[in-house]
Design brief:
Layout lengths: L4 H22 L7 E4 L15 H10 L4 E3 L6 E3 L2 E6 L5 E6 L13 H12 L17 H5 L11 E5 L2 E5 L7 H5 L9 H7 L15 E7 L3 E6 L13 E5 L4 H9 L5 E2 L10 H6 L1 H4 L25 H10 L2 H9 L26 H5 L5
Helix pairs in contact: 1-7
Length: about 375
């Protein structure tokens, strides 16, 4: 692989850091089929309390919900529920679980497991930051706020072992997308009751996704092993996957160059000065992939303190900010300049230039 002079010199200068990290990641383990640079160390692998990308990526491999994410277009497709129906008023979903839905320990996954998992998210003691994703369910918010103490009044019911019925407060077109999100995945509440906060560190951990947790070594890696009891195990590609907690862009890129890791997912883990070269160099094009990311970067001001409590000053700052300069000369990583807070193409969103978005387009605070 050929590199230009400045990149080659930079790589040599940073090589030592990469080699140190590589040595720290070996520890005598057999090689994995796939090694991924995953960013920061996960703070949690519990679907109810995970919030960061570095956590949610691992959680998606370990736990599944009624729906899962289509890897091609990101839409919600059947997961542990093989089919579902929706009432005429758009408020009641009935999910039918797969007959071969099992925990990694071999026991069946039932509709009651989903009821217990979702009620656990709604329990304030769990401290789930994404509990609000369940508030579309009848009485879920009242139960979370302890205004309602009877869980039977929350619109989640197991009609039998394989049938789950969910009643919403109002029709929610994106509810199936929520059912594919990690917070709504099914978790082994019986194991959680036995082991408490250490349930993810007490093997064997019953999981519902395509991979099971083989080991989690802080500062080293999360190692995943294919789950033989997963309902779609025949289509699981790699048998062993390692996710490394690497935060330094230079370290990550050095390890990739030496073949120690196979995938760098996050643009923050590639030195920004290399982006123009990686995008245009013929030798790197086959391995460098860019795609639209559903997110918006913005500046947040403390509007309670002067002088930023003056909307005229905030407007002046927004008008003075050169977005083209910021994107093309400073970031250099291919971001699209934002005209609205909601990115174009977001599912179920209004077109960016509809009348409903006029106020957003005129807002000087969205960058």
């Amino acid at each position: 692989m050929r590199m230009n002079g400045s990149i080659r010199r930079g790589a040599r200068a940073l090589l030592l850091a990469g080699l140190v990290a590589l040595a720290g990641c070996s520890r005598g383990l057999p090689p994995a089929d796939l090694v991924i640079c995953n960013g920061a160390e996960p703070g949690s692998l519990d679907p109810a309390t995970s919030t960061g990308l570095e956590e949610l990526r691992v959680v998606m491999a370990l736990f599944e919900g009624l729906m899962r994410v289509d890897p091609k277009d990101g839409s919600a497709i059947p997961g542990l529920a093989e089919r579902h129906s929706l009432s005429a008023d758009g408020r009641t979903y009935t999910f039918h679980l797969r007959g071969n839905a099992r925990w990694s320990t071999g026991e069946p996954i039932t509709a009651r497991d989903f009821v217990a998992s979702w009620l656990r998210v709604l329990d304030p003691a769990t401290a789930s930051e994404y509990a609000g994703q369940l508030f579309y369910i009848r009485n879920a918010e009242a139960y979370y706020n302890r205004q309602l103490k009877d869980p039977a009044q929350v619109g989640i019911r197991a009609l039998d072992d394989r049938t789950l019925q969910v009643e919403l407060t109002h029709p929610t077109p994106f509810f199936l997308d929520l059912c594919a999100f990690q917070t709504l995945a099914v978790v082994p509440t019986a194991a959680i009751a036995r082991h408490g906060d250490r349930w993810m560190r007490t093997p064997p951990v019953p999981v519902s996704g395509p991979y099971q947790l083989e080991s989690w070594r802080l500062g080293d890696r999360v190692r995943l092993q294919a789950n033989p009891h997963y309902w779609d195990a025949a289509n699981t590609g790699c048998q062993v996957v390692d996710l490394l907690p690497i935060r330094g862009a230079s370290t990550a890129f050095n390890l990739y160059q030496r073949g120690a890791i196979d995938v760098i997912w996050d643009k923050e883990l590639i030195p920004s000065e290399l982006y123009p070269f990686l995008r245009t160099n013929e030798a790197h094009r086959a391995n460098f992939h860019s795609f639209t990311y559903l997110g918006t970067y913005f500046l947040r001001f403390n509007t309670t303190r002067p002088p930023l409590n003056d909307p005229r000053l905030r407007r002046a700052l927004a008008l003075a900010l050169d977005k083209n300069l910021l994107v093309n000369k400073i970031l250099k990583t291919g971001e699209t300049i934002a005209g609205t807070l909601v990115p174009p193409g977001t599912a179920h969103s209004l077109p960016a230039r509809s009348e409903e978005h006029t106020s957003e387009l005129q807002s000087p605070y969205v960058i």
